[in-house]
User: What shape does this take?
Amino acid sequence: MFVGGTDVRPLHVPPNCQNEFCPLCHARLLSNHEWNAVGTLRGDNLLIEAFFETAAPRAADFVLVLEIGMGIGLLVGARLARKGRFRQHAWCQSAIVLLNLAVVAVTMIPSFRVHVLPRVPAKLGKAYYGLATTHAAFGTVTELAGLYILLSAGTTVLPERLRITKYKTWMRSVLVLWWVVLLLGIATYARWYVPHLFRK
Ligand code: HEM
Assistant: This one.
């Protein structure tokens, strides 16, 4: 869809989608005259100029803020351990790992299956799919590693020989990985929903 010579199709629409009512997308695509009306009413470059105006659905905005909060929460939890407050540390990190598991299961995995998986591996070279797939792969490893620490340290469900011995190394590695995944998630959000970062 072109308005004033610029393609203003929302970024969360997969690049090759042509449907006006796309079953793969979060939002209905606007028809030509609707896009023209938007362009006339709001100025062609408004979306491109307003930094915080994104094409993201509210759920994605909410998840973005929640995930940043959880990333900061893990740093706070790590500090609790450094201060020797291990009980609070354990509660804090466990709650975040479990809350994240729920967020990933309810929002990210369904989105990945609909928007990304059908185009993998054919379109992995495109940032839209490549970023999301790298994020999902690292995210899966990180969440599983977080759950493994939680089960090893906080429960007795794992047999002795499967439990972690080098807790510090595991916890530090997962914290670093978590932030890498978080940054990849933010990059995915930016590629999918923030038009002016990627439009020429
Ligand atoms: C530690 C684990 C993870 C963290 C911290 C994380 C963080 C984030 C963040 C901050 C966003 C941007 C907000 C949004 O667009 O909704 C995002 C989006 C996304 N993530 Fe994750 N994520 C994790 C795991 C995963 C996993 C395991 C998958 C898939 C198997 C995944 C797939 C996606 C997809 C497809 C999106 C775009 C969702 C959409 O906007 O429709 N993520 N993630």
Q: What stands out?
A: The radius of gyration is 20 Å. The chain is about 65% helix and 0% strand. The CA atoms of residues 61 and 189 lie 9 Å apart. Confidence is low (pLDDT under 50) at residues 1-11, 18-44, 47-51.
